[in-house]
Design goal:
The chain is 56% helix and 6% strand. The protein is built from six helices and four strands, in the order βααβααααββ. A two-stranded antiparallel ribbon has the order 1-2. Strands 3-4 form a two-stranded antiparallel ribbon. InterPro entries: Transpos_IS110 (IPR047650), Transposase_20 (IPR003346). This is IS110 family transposase.
Length: 131
């Protein structure tokens, strides 16, 4: 445990979790030596904030997965397309849905999604699109 502001490698071992565990040596090196009570408080505040954010992200991911349950088959099918990750598949279902009837062709869907190529150039001059 931290006593009088001194941090050693065992303290770091007991505290680091998640992806930062891979950088344990860097964390130990950066904390070696003495720290003031103020510095310790700031680090603790940051650590608690990181833990809060990690819990929030985990809770949101659970909620997203719960919302995707009715669309599990479509969600998994989308991921078979090269370049479509879990996150992209979830975003596609959230934004577009699974009913493609409003889009008569793939070009209509691409245009609606804003990924259709456009040529805004005439006589070598590029036209600026106004939002």
């Amino acid at each position: 445990m931290v006593e009088q502001g001194y941090v050693d490698a065992d303290d770091v071992d007991d505290c680091v979790r998640g992806t930062i565990k891979n950088k344990k040596a860097q964390v130990t090196d950066s904390l070696f030596g003495t720290m003031t009570a103020h510095q310790i408080r700031l680090i603790k505040d940051c650590w608690e904030h990181i833990e809060y954010l990690e819990k929030s992200v985990a809770r949101l991911e659970e909620e997203i997965h719960a919302h995707l349950q009715p669309y599990r088959q479509e969600y998994e099918l989308l991921q078979t397309v090269p370049g479509i990750s879990e996150i992209t598949a979830a975003a596609l279902i959230a934004e577009i849905g699974i009913d493609m009837n409003p889009f008569p062709t793939a070009d209509h869907l691409a245009s609606w999604a804003g990924v259709a190529p456009g040529n805004h150039e005439s006589a070598g001059k590029k036209k600026v699109q106004k939002a």
